[in-house]
Amino acid sequence: MKKLLFAAVVATLALAPTALGKELQSVSVCGPEGCNSSDGGGAAGAGGGGGGTGGAAFAEFRAAFEGDTDTAGAPRTVLDAVPVGSYYRLGVLVRGDYPPAGHFSVEMWYVKPNLIRFLRSGDRVEPFKRLGPAASSLLERLASDLKPYPAPKVVGAIVNGKRAAHPAEYIGLFGGLKTTDVSLASTSRWVDLGVTPDRANPWFTADMQFLYMPDDQALFFDKPVKVGYDLASTIARDGGLPMPPKPDGRAWGRPVGIGVFALWLVVATGLFLLWRRPRRPREQPTPA
User: Does residue 86 sit in helix, strand or coil?
Assistant: First the structure.
């Protein structure tokens, strides 16, 4: 089922039922070439367990799973856009659970240095969460010698029911666009915008649709963000929409250039005419 991303904020992280009321056994950070795991909160090598003083880190993870905002270091919801980049898979194993090989009790994404997100196709959409210092430190140690997944690419895009000719340009939607002050009113004109990634990632899935308001050049994530002129023009072209107005810098840039050229032409013409003007012969002295 397609999901529409409105400005409504979901304040708690999506929970796996097995995580509630049970002991966390390990936390793992995975890249395309393997995983590093920790038991009891201490960082260990790939596939290994290790001791450590990670009780505080596990407490912060439990606060994330249980929606607890009172625990010291509890994760905080991030509503501003997070720039696309490299990332890791994050897995938490709950004691007593026996997930299939290569899977975990709870699976999320991890973006350095301290962001996690639960995002899977077909699941409810949750915003990024910023971890506390203990959990962040644990994940950074686990990821220190792991190769991350590269930043995702957009391989397909549909705007207003029309397929985009050059979908790769739409990765600019996830470049950390700035928040804009606009609301989705009943009279607002908006279109659906969907993008398909080349691989699973923390920012978007193939079954997500975003609301785009062409009149305001606003795209709705957890907060509405302002789409720049170039990308807004691409959206308008692909979706059969009116082109956005040019920003001030572009609106007068060409007339100013024309004015400078005209001034130069007037000066050059004047100099040319001055040079071509007939010269009066010099008077010769009268012989004595």
Answer: coil
Extract the tokens encoding 82: 């997070």
Could you tell me where the DSSP H helices lie in the chain?
55-66, 133-143, 229-239, 248-251, 253-276
Going by C-alpha positions, the residue among 125, 201, 212 that lies closest to residue 173 is 212
Tokens coding 218 = 């606003």
What residue has token string 């920790």? Answer: 38
- pLDDT tens profile 206-240: 999 999 999 999 999 889 999 999 999 999 999 99
Q: In this structure, are residues 212 and 189 in contact, taking their beta carbons and an 8 Å threshold?
A: no
- Please say whether the dihedral angle defined by the alpha carbons of residues 111, 116, 120 and 126, taken in this order, is positive or negative: negative
Contact indicator for 101, 47 with CB cutoff of 8 Å? no
pLDDT in tens, 128-157: 999 999 999 999 999 999 999 999 999 999
- As given in the structure block, the two tokens for residue 91 are 């897995």
CB atoms within 10 A of CB 62: 20
Cα atoms found within 13 Å of the Cα of residue 67, Cβ hemisphere only: 11
Residue 211: CA count within 13 A, CB half-sphere = 20
Q: What is the pTM of this model?
A: 0.75
Phi, psi (5° rounding) for residue 230?
-60, -50
